[in-house]
Amino acid sequence: MVHPKTVLAEIDQQFPQSLARLFELLRFPSIGTDPAHHGDCRKTAEWLAAQLTGLGFKAELRKTTGQPLVLGRYAPPKAAGLPHVLFYGHYDVQPADPLELWTSAPFAPEIRKGKDGKDAIFARGACDDKGQLMTFLEASRSWLKVHGSLPFRLTVMIEGDEESDPAHIDSFLKARAREFPADVAFICDTEMWDGRTPAINTRLRGCMGIEVSVIGPKIDLHSGLYGGPVQNPIKVLSRILASVHDAKGRITIPGFYDGVKPIPPKLRKQWESLKFPAKKFLGEVGLSVPAGEQGYSALEQMWARPTAEVNGIYGGYQGPGSKTVLPSEATAKLTFRLVEGQDPKKIRKAFKAFVKSRLPKDCKVRFDDSGGDSSGIAVPEGTPWVNAARKALKEEFGRDPVMMGAGYSIPVVESFKKHLKVDSVLVGFAKSDDNPHSPDEKYEVDSFRRGIRSWTRIIAQFATE
Amino acid sequence: MVHPKTVLAEIDQQFPQSLARLFELLRFPSIGTDPAHHGDCRKTAEWLAAQLTGLGFKAELRKTTGQPLVLGRYAPPKAAGLPHVLFYGHYDVQPADPLELWTSAPFAPEIRKGKDGKDAIFARGACDDKGQLMTFLEASRSWLKVHGSLPFRLTVMIEGDEESDPAHIDSFLKARAREFPADVAFICDTEMWDGRTPAINTRLRGCMGIEVSVIGPKIDLHSGLYGGPVQNPIKVLSRILASVHDAKGRITIPGFYDGVKPIPPKLRKQWESLKFPAKKFLGEVGLSVPAGEQGYSALEQMWARPTAEVNGIYGGYQGPGSKTVLPSEATAKLTFRLVEGQDPKKIRKAFKAFVKSRLPKDCKVRFDDSGGDSSGIAVPEGTPWVNAARKALKEEFGRDPVMMGAGYSIPVVESFKKHLKVDSVLVGFAKSDDNPHSPDEKYEVDSFRRGIRSWTRIIAQFATE
Q: Boundaries of CATH 3.30.70.360 in chain A?
C-alpha cells in the first residue's frame, strides 16, 4: 500500500475545480425516461466520455436498446497480473416535477445550507447519481496526476437507463459479457449508515413475484341460494395465504429455507451494536411492534431474512355496500424476498406445489409468473475488495463502516453477477435526507469531498511503491 | 271440510275466462323500478282493485312510499270465531330488456309450447308474480260463486315494489300494523319441488352483512424496504377469515350456534327421501363435491344451516403485473346466513369480538354495519295452516308436498313476522325453468290451472257444511 497523503492534499487543493466539473454535469437535464430529453442524455454521455478521455481512458459511447452507455477503459503500463476493476454509475436522473416545490431550479445547481446547517449542492441528480459517480472519477484524476497510473485495470461504465428500465443494460451485458472481464464491480449509488458512519452494502434481497387465482364455481352465484355446499374461492385463498406462515412468522413452504445460511456471527454482532431503533422506525409508519420472523432483529429481518408478502388481493364484490355474491374466483399477488442461496425458480415451483396441496378437490388454480425472478445476493464480508473498502473508509471517517444489507434488489448488481460473474461492492456517501427522486435533491459538499477522499484511500490499498 | 268437487268442476269449466283475466293483467307493463312505468303500475293496481270489488271484497288503493298497495278485505256473513287469512302477492314485474331475446313481446301474452312440449303462457310477470297471485283470486272467485262465502276472513294485499325495494311495504306495515290482524299469511310466489311434486316453503334463512377492514401501517410501504418487521394487513385479514371455519366447516365464532335447533327428524327424513342430486346440482356450476359443514346434506346446508360467506375482498395492488407494495389496509365483505333462533345483532357483536381477539397488537380494525340484518324464519311444519296446505296439495297432485327451505330471505315474510306477528306459508306453482327475471318468462297453463284448484282445496279444508 502507498500512503495516499499526497493525493489527498491534491484533492483538497483542487476541490473547487472538482465542484465546477460536477456542476457542469448537473446542468444537463438528463431525464432518461422522457423522450424529450433523450438529446440531453446523449450530450451528457458525450460530456462524460470527454472527461474519461481527459483522464487518459479509452472512452466510447455504446448503443443500447435505451440511452447511450458510456465506457472508459484503462490499463496501467504494467498491467500483467493486476486485477480488473469495473466501476459503475448512472448519468440519467429522475424527472424533476413538481417544479414548484424546488427552492432553486433543478438543473441550475447551487450550494446553500441544508436544514441541518450543512453546505450542500442542490440539483436533480446531485446525489442520485451524478455527485456519487463523480467521487470516483475525481479520485482517479488526482491519483493519476500524482502517481501517473492506477494500480489496477479499470472499466468505467456509466449508463443512462437506471431510473427507467434495467432491461436495457441487462440485455447489453448479456450479449457482450466477454467484453467485460472484471474481478470486482464498485458501485457508488448508496447511502451512509448515518451522517458520521460510512457503509458498505454487500447484501441485497432478490424478489420472486407470482399471482395466484383460486377458481371455484364457474360463475358468480347467489350466496343465499348456494351458500353452504359450494366452495368459496375467497375462503380457500384466505386459508392458503394464512398457512404460508406459522405462528412464529416462519414460512411453511417445504424447501423454502433450503440454502439460506445464517449471517456470520461477526456481522450479527455489528448489527446488534448499531442499536437500530426498531420502535422509532416502525413508529414512523404508524406501528410499534416488530412483526415477522421470531428470533431475528428487525434489521436482520429486512436485510438478511427471506419473506413472503401479499401485495394485493381481490375477489367478488368490491363496491359500496353489500352484495350477496358467492364469487367464482379470488386472486392474490405475492412477492417473496429472497436471500443468497435461495433459487427463485425452485421457490416458484415449491409455492405452486404448496398451493396445489392445499386446494380442495373441486377448486382450480391459475398462476401468473410475470412477476419475475431475481436472486438474493451476498458478497462475503472478507474478500480483499470488501476489506480494502472497509479499511479505507475507516481511515477517512475514523469509524468502522457498517456492513449493510438492503431489503430490495438493485437490478444491475444481479446483471453483473449473472452475466459477468462478478460480485459488486456498494460504497456510497448519500445521506438519508438527500431527497433522491424528490424536490430539493441535494448532496452534501462534505459527502462529495469525503467520497473522493475515500475512493483515493481504496485505490491506495492496491498500490505498491 | 267441504268436498270441493263442485268448485273444481266450475274452475275447469270456466278456465278460459280465468286465462282471459290473467292475460288482461299481463298486458300492463307494470315495471315498478322504472319511473316511466309508474303510470302503468297505478293502472294495474286499479285493475286489481276492480277485480277485488267484483269478488265482493272491500277494495282500495293505499299510498306507500313506493307504488300503490292494493288491499281487498272480506268478511263472511258469520265471521265471529273464523280465522283471518292474509293473502300476499305483487303486481310489479322485472324490466323486460333485453327485448331482442324475447320470442314474443313481453307484454303481449301468448300461449305456446315450451321446450318441454307443454303449453305455457309467455309474458313478463307470467310466473313472477301475476300468474301466481291470480291462482288465489280465481280460486276465491269460483268458491264464492258456488258457496256464496269463504270460510275465513280475508285480507288480500298486492304490492307494487317487490322487485325494487322491500323498504316500502316494510315501513307501511310497521306504521299500520294494527290494521292487519291475521292468523296466517299465504304467499304465492315460489316454485314447486319439481314438475310433478308440489312444495310448501316454511323456512327462510336470514342474513347479516358486515364489512371488516384491517389497518396496518398508516401508508402503503415498499415491501422490499419494510418487508419483515412490518405487519401486512392482507395477511392478518386472511388469517382471520381462515379461522372463521374449523376443519369440519363449522363456524368457530363463540356463540354463533346459540339458539340453532336441529330440524325435526321427520323433516330430515323427508329431505333424505328426496335424494337431492347434490353432484348434479354442483355440476351445473362447475363443481362436484359438496363443501360446507360436515355431517349435513347439501340440502340441509342450504335450507337449514347457518353459513358465513366472504362476498368480496380487496387490498393493496390489484392492477396488471406486480407491484412491491406492503399495503396499509385490506377489506372483506361478509354475509352470514342465519336460521331461526339466531339473533343477527348478537352475531354481529360476536363477529366483531372474534376479529378483535385475533388482531395483532399493532393493527386497527374498522367495521361497516350497513350490510343490514334479517332473522332466519321457520314455520313449524305442524300448524293447522301448513297441514291444510299439505293435505290439499296432496289431493291435487297425488304426492306429498315437499316441505322446502330457502337459503335466502324473502323480506316481506320478515316484515309480516316482525310487524304483524304472523307466520307465512309459501305455496307456489312455478317451475324451475320458468325464467322469472329473464327473457321468455313463462307460467305453464297447467301450473295456473292446478294452482287455482290447489287453493280451492286449501279453502275447502276450512269450510264446514
A: 206-260+306-374
- Output the pLDDT for position A225: 86
Residues B190/B408, Cβ–Cβ less than 8 Å: no
CA distance A106 to A104: 6
Burial (CB < 10 A; 0-12, 13-18, 19+), residue A167, is middle
Asked whether the beta carbons of residue B327 and residue A307 sit closer than 8 angstroms, the reply is: no
Domain with CATH 3.40.630.10 in chain B: 5-204+377-462
ipTM of the complex: 0.87
Cα of first residue to Cα of last residue in chain B, in angstroms, is 7
pLDDT band of B381, cuts 50, 70, 90: confident
Does the beta-carbon distance from A285 to B239 stay under 8 Å? Answer: no
Among candidates B230, B239, B315 on the partner chain, residue whose Cβ is nearest the Cβ of A313 = B315
Give the CB-side neighbour count of residue A210, counting CA atoms within 13 A: 21
Q: Do A310 and B289 touch (CB under 8 A)?
A: no
The yes or no reply on domain B206-267+299-374 and CATH 3.30.70.360 is yes
Residue B410: per-residue pLDDT:
87
Q: What is the average pLDDT across A10-34?
A: 97
The count of other CB atoms within 10 Å of the CB of residue B115 is 9
Residue A50 clears pLDDT 80, i.e. is over it:
yes
HSE-up of A272 (CA within 13 Å, CB side)? Answer: 9
> How far is residue B315's CA from residue B323's CA, in Å, rounded to a whole number?
12
How sure is the predictor about A382, in pLDDT bands with cuts at 50, 70 and 90?
confident
CB A87 within 8 A of CB A156: yes
Alpha carbons within 13 A on the beta-carbon side of A284: 6
State the CATH class of domain A5-204+378-461: alpha beta
CATH class of A206-260+306-374: alpha beta
Is the Cβ–Cβ distance between A93 and A30 less than 8 Å? yes
Measured distance CA(A427)–CA(A450) in Å, rounded: 12
* CA–CA separation, B163 and B66 (whole Å): 11
- Min Cα separation A215/chain B (Å): 10
Confidence of residue B465 (pLDDT cuts 50, 70, 90): low
Q: Please say if the pLDDT value at position A1 is more than 80.
A: no
Residue B85 one-letter amino acid: V
**Architecture in CATH for domain B5-204+377-462:** 3-Layer(aba) Sandwich (3.40)
